[in-house]
Structure formats: structure tokens, C-alpha cells
Amino acid sequence: MQDFLLTHKTILITGASSGIGKAAAILASQMGANVVIHGRDINKLNDTLSQLNPTGNHLLLQADLTKQEEITNLIKQCPKVDGIVHCAGIVKPVPAKFIQQKHIDEMFSINYNAVVLINSGLLQLKKVNDKASIVLISTISTQHSYFGGALYISSKGALETYARALGLETVAKGIRVNTLSPAMVHTEIYENTLKSILNPAHADKYVSTYPLGIGEPLDVAHSIVFLLSNASKWITGTVIKMDGGLTLGYQKIE
């Protein structure tokens, strides 16, 4: 049972001000971790901080991941870590024929570039301890596309292939790199995305295609904490699908 705990581990979680990142930060603290929470909105970050296990030695780092200087400061201020969870990300549907350079820059700067730069910076400064665990958040949409998702899906597809290369380059130090690939989860960002790509009449029909229902942030957080723990010490280079049965081809019978 001890292998499932995060006692004495220091974990950096980006995007911890809401959704999956917030749920993961709270759960990790409850499992014994000292959590370094990152976000852009200081008020939301403070709310997350207030819900962490008070016995831990937690740290709050505010940064805009679209700005190189703020990423650099985050890396400098971050202590040595035993785990990194990249939850920061954006979802903005843009039909392929309307994509402009500004859309590419915005999507990739947060969903891909920031992940790569944070990992690189922490590794260069030797702030990632041996046998650490790095968890990236992708999407089931890399295998299950949707209209307007070209940029978002591309950024996450790039993340999945990057993760495998990173895992290969860090395995000698026992550092593990895994990716979670969730489908629709009840977060503000996904709720807004659902509304933007589906009219209300179609939304309920779409939700019904999930045999186990839409996911909750805590569902993903449980898997994140498992991958951070010693219980997953033999797992690296994987992409774990979390979709409530969506891709089983389920058809609800009325």
C-alpha cells in the first residue's frame, strides 16, 4: 500500500488553478506530496492552495506560459522535483480553412512549447530527481477527431510523440514519462468546447455515446497520482486511454 502514496515526494503541477490540474494537486497533497502549483490566475491558484493538505510544504508559482521570461522564472523558482504533471492547456476550435499563424502560435505555445521548455529547463538545471515521473495530458481526439479540432489535436499529437522520445532519453536515470489520453471531462474548458462545436439538441446525443458517462477531474487525477507513485515504477512510454468506453463503438438502444 505504501507504494501508492506520494510521501516525501515534491510534485510540480502546471495548470493547477482549475479542472484536472486542481484535482490532481489536491489529491497529490492528500497522498502525502509537497505540491508546487502553477497557474496564471492568482486568485484561482490561492483557492487551490487553500484546499491542499495543510501538513505539506507547498509552493505557489504564477506564470504565463506564453511568455518565455515567465517560463524561465518558473524554472528558476521551482525546487527539485520527483514528479511533473503538465495539465496547463487550451482548447479553441478553429475550422481548418480559417487557421492563421496567430492561432498556431497560441495553441502550440501553451499545449506543446511550454511543456518542452519546462522539462528541458528543469532537466538542464538537474532539478528532476532520479526515478522521477513525468505525466503529460493528451486527448482521445488524437484518435477520435472532431470538426474544428485540427490545431488542438495536432498540438496533442506532437506531445505524445515527444513524450516517447523524452522517455527514451531519461530512462537511464530511471525517470518515467507517460501520457494520459482522456476524452470529455467535466471541466470549464471542455464544457465550453462542447457548447461551441455542438448545438444543444446534439449535445445530449453526444454525451449518450459515453457508456460510462462523461469523466470527472478526479477520475483523471487518480490515474495521475498512480503514475506519480512508486506503484507504477515499471511503466514508461505509454499512452493510457481514458474515454468512458467512447471508442468501443457503443450505441445506446432506446
Short descriptors:
alpha/beta, Rossmann fold, 8 helices, 254 residues, 7-stranded parallel sheet
**At the fourth CATH level, what is the homologous superfamily?**
NAD(P)-binding Rossmann-like Domain
Q: How many runs of DSSP E, i.e. beta strands?
A: 7
- Helix percent reads 40-55%
Helix-strand makeup class: alpha/beta
What is the highest CATH level, the class? Alpha Beta
Tell me the CATH topology. Rossmann fold
Cross-sheet strand order for the largest sheet: 3-2-1-4-5-6-7
CATH architecture: 3-Layer(aba) Sandwich
Count of separate structural domains:
1
Percent strand equals 15-25%
Mean of residue pLDDT?
94
C-alpha Rg (nearest Å):
18 Å
**Biggest beta sheet attributes:** 7 strands, parallel
Order of helices and strands: EHEHEHEHEHEHHHE
Outline = globular
Distance between the termini: 43 Å
Low-confidence stretches: none
Task: Give a verbal description of the structure.
It is a single chain. By secondary structure, the chain is an alpha/beta fold. The protein has one domain: NAD(P)-binding Rossmann-like Domain (Rossmann fold, 3-Layer(aba) Sandwich), CATH 3.40.50.720. Helix content is 42%, strand content 17%. It contains eight helices and seven strands, in the order βαβαβαβαβαβαααβ. A seven-stranded parallel beta sheet has the order 3-2-1-4-5-6-7, with helices on both faces. β2, α2 and β3 (59-62) form a beta-alpha-beta unit. The longest helix is centred in the middle third of the chain and has 24 residues, at 101-124. 40% of the residues are buried. The mean pLDDT is 94.
